[in-house]
Amino acid sequence: MLTLRIAWRNLWRNNRRTAITFAALSLNTAVLIASFALMLGMLDDLVRNATDLVVGQVQVHHPKYRSERSIYDTVIKPGDILQAAASAGIAASPRAYGFGLVSHGKNSAGARFCGVFPEKEKKTVELYKHLLAGNYLPDKPGKKLVLGRKLAKTLEVKVGDEIIVVVQAADGSMGNDIYHVAGILKSMGEGIDRTLAMVHYKDMEDLFALNGTFHEIVLNSSGKMPEDKVAAAILPSAKGNEVMTWRQLMPPLNDMLNAMNGMLILFGAIFFLAAGLGVMNTMLMSTFERIREFGLLKAIGATPWRIIKEVSAEALLLGVASTLAGGAIGTFLAWYFQYHPIDLTGFAPDGISAMGVAMNPEWRATLSPETVWMPIVVMWIISLLAVLWPAVRAARLDPVKALVQV
Amino acid sequence: MKEILGLEAVTKEYGQGDIKVFALKDVSMSVNQGDFLALAGPSGSGKTTMLNLIGGLDRPTHGKVEVDGVDISRLSGGALSRLRLHKIGFVFQAYNLIPVLTAYENAEYVLMLQGASVKERKRKIMSLLKEVGLDGKENRYPRELSGGQQQRVAIARAIAAEPALVLADEPTANVDSKTAKALLDLMERLNTEKGITFIFSTHDPAVMDRARKLVHLKDGKIEEIEEKESKTREPNAD
Ligand SMILES: Nc1ncnc2c1ncn2[C@@H]1O[C@H](COP(=O)(O)OP(=O)(O)O)[C@@H](O)[C@H]1O
Ligand SMILES: [Mg+2]
After folding, report:
1. Which of A46, A161, A241, B217 has the fewest CB atoms inside 10 Å of its own CB, making it the most exposed?
2. Which of A293, A303, A304 sits opposite B98 (nearest CB)?
3. Could you tell me which residues are beta bridge partners of residue A74?
4. Class of domain B3-227
């Protein structure tokens, strides 16, 4: 097409200026794509750790349980909820909680017991993968314990050690027994590290006289559906209970994610603004140098609209060519950081946790189609917006005056 | 003969208030189809102003400019664009060509504006370039052409659109006398063989001499109109 050919040649009339703008726009696009992918990777990691490790996407409780933590506020009709989850293809794990004392030798500490069915729990969350030592709970009850890291430290226990457990049961009696340490968890955040003592539900039921009741049902589709869909799927069967998504369960994390998203948008806006000013400056200079030519084009019959098209085509070509180059570089960088994550273990050898959520020491980028095409397309739109003023200025030139310019 | 252009009491003023400059003052004349007309006069006499008004690049302060029966002083900007595209061909003194376009593309550009197909453009431009003596130079950029060759491209572009009028503002002022003569030969040949109407301005007596109708301008007024219908053509010196 003649118009594109003209635009391309005009673009390279001033090699140096165009090359600088081209390089700046490419770099801009590459940096945006790579940093968006890294930020998304971090956010994904945060959310996945927040949900997939312990919390799940959705939790069901008795409405009073979360404020009172009473052993008597149990989930209403848990069987219905588990069935609804199963038929929607959502993994679900019922849990029971209770407080008690654990001791080993001269050391003792308060603990929050959590009773689970290990095979269900393992299908729902990935806590079992994060052991510092020993093994996760066996599928069959056997008075085994998995302890939080700091709790194990306080008690000075290692895997296989004996632990004496004393609790107040639901029927008012005192429960006590001897358990053995099956495993110790990695750093999972303060609450878990200091107090968690996981046991098989069947052992817990005996110890606390629970009588088949639960305090919590955790649901997780492991990325198959968003959390509100999960909540909606089980809502009808959870009448009388409180159903909450992880965003409601962990408002600080939710706020932080929103803030990070906001920062990403601001970061992007600064880059886009800089790119737009670059394009505008380049096109203002290049149209200014060609005033006489625009006069000539008008004299031989070019309409203002035609001139707007020609000038815009230059900016669009510049934008498209440079963002494609920059897009390729950015995509490569994002791809590279997806498979070669940035290693953060040097900063925190024991693992990192932020706002009670454990983070992977490996910072991995998430390369999604959106992180590539969105910055590129926005850059095209910016190029077109930035050229508007120079183009309209060129189109509105008075041919008689323009023709006497040199 | 058919009248192709008529000026009726045309005045063009520049500036406002006390510092008014009359570039043209109460000018009337008419041009017929097939004329080969020169606007002659010293620098500042109003030649460029007159050509700009005829070509619809500018509007008169008073009076009427009729091109092919249409009063163009009242046309909108868009209509003037169309008029320039379809009815007028322009050749300027210098810098006539778009530097990033080849000789071929410079001439092709107008046809593209007119919406002609690539094939039609090719057929027309190749024969036109041959006609103006630029065989084999189609793919040269303006900077690779001599001043005379550049003016030939400009002439080819001006006639490509098959306009009613070709307006040439001092087309030979920037070339040596031999080249000037060759360009005039070309214009004259296009005029006699194809019937294209030319109006060109000049302050060079040797160039004025070639016109068949000569309009003498001075201080924005027509001093004299000379008809030289019986003038015999010199042999082609190109
Ligand atoms: N844009 C303008 N503003 C003010 N005066 C102008 C303008 N254009 C031309 N003039 C004046 O109009 C007169 C005629 O100019 P012009 O038509 O360019 O003459 P020529 O082409 O014969 O040299 C001159 O006095 C010139 O100074
Ligand atoms: Mg002049």
Report:
1. A161
2. A293
3. none
4. alpha beta
